[in-house]
Specification:
The protein is mainly alpha-helical and 306 residues long. The protein has 2 domains: 3-212, Up-down Bundle (Alpha-lytic protease prodomain-like), CATH 1.20.1510; 219-303, 2-Layer Sandwich (Alpha-Beta Plaits). It is 67% helix and 9% strand. The radius of gyration is 26 Å and the shape is elongated.
């Protein structure tokens, strides 16, 4: 197993254990406080646990070689899973908004703010610590699955932070002339935090849908690779070159057509392999995960999709 894969899978296992702890914590405190916000936090974490198990399974599959069923390996499952996870986050946020609006319409929700503060302080603090730890592991392993896991934890942590701030306000006003507003703190808080949490999963959804439908990487990435290609082909007798790039999860595939000129000659096939090796080394200095297929052609029409 590659070191990056080992880091990824260990981090996912840590995430799963952490989720179990916070699910139990949320359900206990939602029962004590009667808070819909804390109950939603627990439900969100419970569904996250199921998705975390699937994520670990996909992580293991992605490391398997190609086989008779998946000729290009299993990494295509990664963007599909990430789309599912981002949709789950979005649906959870919309559900929370509906619950909060319903609660407002019914006159709010009276909760035990003292216990709610204890819960949200532990959940927010612990959630942010885990988020930063997983972000570090995601960067170290270049894992797309872990990056989406970080988004889940950050959304959950901000929900807990919002609960914390809101119930601190509720504690401050419950014995004041504003005490009649206390029942509205819980639903208003849930509306604000879930609305602010929508941006991250929408971004993840768009990025991974682009991978599923086979869109090219961002122009900045293509421009960088084109610059490297110009450097590595400058000494070759070529009329032109064309390349295509597609990304699926952790794998990036690059198809290169080198359109040779009349002056291009070689004595042995090994000479072509030397060109391939130098080109691959140059491109992988930018992205070590790129897999390249390099073809030598004379007729430019062979570089077009047929």
């Amino acid at each position: 197993m590659r070191e990056s894969a080992r880091i990824e899978q260990n981090a996912l296992k840590f995430s799963m254990v952490s989720i179990i702890f916070f699910v139990l914590l949320a359900f206990v405190f939602s029962f004590i406080t009667g808070s819909d916000s804390i109950l939603f936090d627990g439900i969100y974490s419970l569904i996250s646990l199921v998705i975390a198990i699937l994520t670990l399974k996909v992580s293991r599959l992605a490391e398997l070689p190609d086989d008779e069923r998946f000729h290009f390996g299993y990494t295509r499952l990664e963007p599909v899973l990430n789309v599912s996870k981002s949709l789950f986050i979005l649906i959870s946020c919309v559900y929370a908004l509906v619950i909060a609006v319903k609660s407002l319409y019914e006159g709010g929700n009276q909760v035990d703010a003292g216990f709610a503060v204890i819960y949200s302080a532990v959940a927010a603090g612990g959630g942010f610590i885990i988020s930063f730890y997983l972000r570090y592991k995601a960067k170290k392993s270049s894992s797309g699955l872990l990056k989406v896991e970080v988004v889940e934890w950050m959304v959950d942590s901000f929900l807990s932070l919002g609960i914390l701030l809101g119930f601190i306000i509720a504690l401050l006003i419950e014995n004041s002339k504003w005490s009649h507003f206390t029942p509205y703190v819980d639903p208003i808080l849930l509306i604000v935090i879930t609305a602010l949490s929508l941006t991250a999963p929408i971004k993840v959804l768009i990025e991974n849908l682009q991978e599923i439908i086979g869109m090219a990487p961002p122009e900045s990435v293509v421009a960088k690779i084109e610059g490297l290609m110009d450097e590595v082909t400058s000494g070759l007798s070529l009329n032109d070159y064309e390349f295509r790039i597609i990304k699926h999860g952790r794998d990036t595939f690059m198809l290169v057509h080198l359109i040779v000129s009349d002056d291009f000659h070689f004595n042995e096939v090994s000479e072509l392999d030397q060109i391939r090796n130098s080109m691959e080394k140059k491109i992988r200095s930018y992205n070590p995960e790129i897999s390249m297929e390099i073809l030598f052609i004379k007729d430019k029409s062979w570089a077009k999709l047929r």
